[in-house]
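Morning. Coffee machine broken again, so started the prediction first thing and wrote up yesterday's gels while waiting. Chain of 229 residues, entered below exactly as on the submission form.
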Amino acid sequence: MTTIGVIGGTGGQGLGIATRFVEAGEDVIIGSRTVEKAQAAVDKVKELLPGARNIRAMANPDAAKAADVLVLTVPLAAQKDTLLSIKEGAAGKPLMDATGPLESCIGGSATKYIDLPEGSAAERSQSILPDAKVICAFNNISQTWFMQLGEPIDCDCLICGNDQAAKDLVAPLIEKIPGVKVIDCGKLERACIIEKITPLLIGLNIKNKCQFGGIRITGLDRIKACDTK
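Came back before lunch.
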């Protein structure tokens, strides 16, 4: 069994991801700045999934050391400090970064993207943690979907990263969440494209007064319809 550490897992997105992995039978650690805050999140998961024993609470640095795979679910403003706090524990491990660089992080609109000097939030994580295997993931699935327990999620999970073995490791874990299909989009440099889909989906959800807007990539498994010779 793989141990998954959800770093900063006390917010809506982190709590939803942690709950879905617990529901799928994986060993989960919720990390936070304090053990007490992490334990409060664990208690919420246990309320949603009575009898669940495959989840525990730790401070972020300890969670990073104890886990095999990490998921970062913090706001952009907390990204750097959180990553520095787990630098030792994250070394050599896959780290799925769900950070959304949205203007709402600085008091603006959640439907607008912030351009970062590194190119994307995931590339920023890689620059801060050069020894981690950073993968952009979970950016396009709404936290509302994660909390519809027992219901398949109607959304693909677009990922990208520079370490193919790390992507091959996390893909089947992600696909243990019912309904989710992983689409490998290539190198980490494509993270800016994946991340920019998030404010588009938020805008569509607002326009349509819903919280379930997602994305599906179709046609990739079809045989070529024409002769390219």
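Strands lie at 3-7, 27-32, 55-59, 69-72, 94-97, 133-136, 156-161, 181-184. Going to sketch it on the whiteboard this afternoon.
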